[in-house]
């Protein structure tokens, strides 16, 4: 075992894995929260409100922690603008407009490519080690996620008119999230996850609101008509699904790397299916359960150093 693997198999790494699992489960819940919000607001306005709430939550968190918001250097400003553009602004535009052409299930199937794209890009760009166990683990995760999603909507592979454009836009989400995951490394170490997430979300939120205003999609009447359930959904999306979850994800990247953190994204469709069954009375099939088992097995295999530590009882 290399020195790197020994350091990654320390017992102190276990909370990181639990945190990443919790983060991706929260993200899985955003699909359910989005269902409650659908129809009341335009997609762009909903995204703008979501990240406005995330920005407020992050600023309150920093104030309560009595940690001043640092002033980035010119180089850091450029890096933060890159993260805000691709991870918040570009991702949400691709996601919401992509859903005009394809179903949410078909989009989820494409988003399930995230672990593979992050792993491959980490290896090509940053020479992050990508051994056989990680490759097999990522492949198993993608297979399991595909089983869960296809079982939920067997007709999703039959694309309609304009499906190619929707697929292309949703693949833009994958690329945007890959940039947000991979190019945060330097900022995560210099500014820390909280500062990096706060600044990137503040900048991305500004871009979303400027676009929303320019397109004339800001509607005070629509916002005023939101009910309690829809506001709770927005709070979940903004505070839990954006502010806190993004900090947890970036903290995971800082500690164990983008590839091993990114593979946890495969839990998103599994969590969405389980919550859909519990809260929305959606069916839970055997294929979904088998797919969920493959996702868990793939995550365990991709993080093999931790598995070795557990086997040794460390």
Automatic annotation (TrEMBL):
Domain of life: Bacteria
UniProt key word Membrane: yes
Matching Gene3D superfamilies: 1.10.3730.20
Subcellular location: Membrane
Keyword Zinc-finger: no
Database matches in InterPro entries: AA-Vitamin_Transporters, EamA_dom, EmrE-like
Pfam annotation, one family: EamA
Parts of the chain that traverse the membrane: 16-38, 44-65, 77-99, 105-126, 133-151, 163-184, 196-216, 228-249, 261-279, 285-302
Chain ranges of the EamA domain: 18-149, 165-302
Keywords noted in UniProt: Membrane, Transmembrane, Transmembrane helix
Membrane topology annotation: Multi-pass membrane protein
Main localisation: membrane
Family: Belongs to the EamA transporter family.
Protein name (database record): DMT family transporter
């Amino acid at each position: 075992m290399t020195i790197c693997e020994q350091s990654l198999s320390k017992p102190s790494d276990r909370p990181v894995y639990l945190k990443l699992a919790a983060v991706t489960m929260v993200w899985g819940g955003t699909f359910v929260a989005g269902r409650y919000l659908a129809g009341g607001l335009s997609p762009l306005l909903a995204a703008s409100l979501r990240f406005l709430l995330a920005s407020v939550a992050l600023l309150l968190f920093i104030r309560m922690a009595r940690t001043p918001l640092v002033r980035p250097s010119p180089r850091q400003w450029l890096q933060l603008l890159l993260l805000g553009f691709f991870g918040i602004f570009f991702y949400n535009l691709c996601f919401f407009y992509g859903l005009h052409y394809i179903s949410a299930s078909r989009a989820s199937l494409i988003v399930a490519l995230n672990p593979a794209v992050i792993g491959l890009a980490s290896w090509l760009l940053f020479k992050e080690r990508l051994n056989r166990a990680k490759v097999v683990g990522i492949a198993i995760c993608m297979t399991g996620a595909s089983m869960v999603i296809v079982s939920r909507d067997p007709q999703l592979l039959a694309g309609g008119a304009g499906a190619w454009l929707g697929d292309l836009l949703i693949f833009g989400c994958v690329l945007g999230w890959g940039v947000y995951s991979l190019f945060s490394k330097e900022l995560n170490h210099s500014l820390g996850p909280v500062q990096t997430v706060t600044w990137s979300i503040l900048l991305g939120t500004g871009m979303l609101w400027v676009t929303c205003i320019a397109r004339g999609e800001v509607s005070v009447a629509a916002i005023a008509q939101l009910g309690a359930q829809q506001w709770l959904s927005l709070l979940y999306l903004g505070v839990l699904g954006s502010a806190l979850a993004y900090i947890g994800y970036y903290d995971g990247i800082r500690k164990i790397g983008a590839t091993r953190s990114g593979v946890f994204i495969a839990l998103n469709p599994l969590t969405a299916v389980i919550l859909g069954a519990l809260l929305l009375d959606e069916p839970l099939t055997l294929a979904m359960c088998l797919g969920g088992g493959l996702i868990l097995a793939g995550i365990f295999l991709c993080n093999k150093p931790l598995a070795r530590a557990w086997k040794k009882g460390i």
